[in-house]
């Protein structure tokens, strides 16, 4: 489970259970997930849950790459978007014996 792994890694949670989901307001005490809980689930059937990532060429009429990610966790969507960003906008330049990582678009997370 993506949410479970992220909470264990980032928040140091050792045991993941239903009480944690209730505390995060993702699971209702009456026994159902709310919309936020569904959006963070590994899979969901929410129609509007997704992103469409496009890399254009010289203008919007030329599409060089396109990927639609839907019906998966928002965390998985975010991770996929970051991976695609790194694939197309981060490169390494060789300067003598050194390899220098450069970004075409600065990523605030790496600064």
What does this protein look like?
- The protein is α+β, with helices and mostly antiparallel strands and 111 residues long.
- It folds into two domains: 1-42, no CATH class; 48-111, no CATH class.
- Helices cover 34% and strands 28% of the residues.
- The chain has four helices and six strands.
- It has helices at residues 2-11, 18-23, 35-40, 74-89, and strands spanning 27-28, 32-33, 50-56, 63-70, 90-95, 98-103.
- A two-stranded antiparallel ribbon has the order 1-2. The protein has a two-stranded antiparallel sheet with strand order 3-4. A two-stranded antiparallel sheet has the order 5-6.
- It is flat, with a radius of gyration of 19 Å.
- 4% of the residues are buried.
List the helices and strands and how they pair.
Elements: H1 2-11, H2 18-23, E1 27-28, E2 32-33, H3 35-40, E3 50-56, E4 63-70, H4 74-89, E5 90-95, E6 98-103
Antiparallel strand pairs: 1-2, 3-4, 5-6
What would you say about this model in short?
This protein is of the alpha+beta class. Helices cover 34% and strands 28% of the residues.
Distance between the termini: 29 Å
Q: Give the fraction of residues assigned to helices.
A: 25-40%
Shape: flat
Counting helices, strands and paired strands, the structural category is: alpha+beta
Order of helices and strands: HHEEHEEHEE
Output mean pLDDT. 91
Nearest-angstrom radius of gyration?
19 Å
Beta-strand portion reads: 25-35%
Largest sheet, in brief, is: 2 strands, antiparallel
- Which blocks of ≥5 consecutive residues have pLDDT under 50? none
């Amino acid at each position: 489970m993506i949410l479970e792994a992220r909470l264990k890694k980032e928040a140091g949670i050792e045991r993941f259970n239903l009480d944690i989901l209730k505390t995060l307001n993702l699971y209702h005490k009456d026994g159902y997930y709310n919309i936020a809980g569904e959006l963070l689930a590994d899979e969901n059937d929410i129609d509007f849950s997704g992103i469409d990532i496009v890399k254009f060429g010289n203008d919007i009429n030329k599409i060089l790459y396109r990927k639609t990610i839907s019906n998966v966790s928002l965390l998985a969507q975010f991770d996929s978007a970051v991976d695609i960003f790194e694939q197309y906008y981060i490169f390494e330049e060789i300067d003598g014996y050194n390899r220098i990582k450069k970004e075409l678009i600065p990523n605030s997370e790496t600064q």
